[in-house]
Amino acid sequence: MWNWSYYSFKYTFDDLAKLDIRVGTILKVSEVEKSDKLMKLSVDFGDHKRTILAGIKQEREDYSNYLLNLTDTYKVLISKEKVVAAFGISQVKNSNRSRVTWIMVCPNEKGKGIGTKLMSYVKQYTLDIESVGIDIAASYLSSLFFKKFGAIETNYIKDGWGNDMHRIDMEINF
Fold it and tell me: 160 lies in which domain range?
């Protein structure tokens, strides 16, 4: 399923579990005057709001529109007090579709049904928000995993994720 060394991750899931990870909703995005790199984000974390400066201005032409229209939900799966998997899913605005933004499963957990649990949750989430399907941008390595759950290939982009990392666009329809 996932070959971590191929993707050159330098952190383990144990490292990730040590982090204080907070999820918030971006309320407002604005430019920082006289800065070529910084954007000012107003973020609601539920129990408090915070203004964050991020050096992301050059990553997208219209970052404000992108961030304000991105509705990703991030989930982590914890087993025996360890993070064993995580994923992101979102409803595509102005559409009746959802999209899987990413899925990661700890290599030590392979073969234990965690991927099946994640995809079951993704499918139920999609049905709950009345989407008619799920869009997935996979690698050629992970596309086999998604095919097990009924995903079909809609597009192939050679080197789409980088040199020798081919992108496979897929969809699951209901």
Answer: 4-19+71-173
Using alpha carbons only, give the angle 90, 52, 87 rounded to the nearest 5 degrees: 25
CATH number of the domain to which 125 belongs = 3.40.630.30
Which residues have a Cβ under 8 Å from the Cβ of 134 and sit 6 or more positions away? 97, 98, 99, 100, 122, 123, 126, 151, 171, 172
CA angle 163, 15, 53 (to 5 degrees): 75
pLDDT tens digits, 141-164? 889 999 999 999 999 999 888 888
Question: How many separate domains does the chain show?
Answer: 1
Domain-located, residue 35: no
Which residues are within 8 A (CB) of 7 and not within 5 positions of it... i.e. 6 or more apart? none
Residues in the chain, how many? 174
Residue with tokens 């595509």: 92
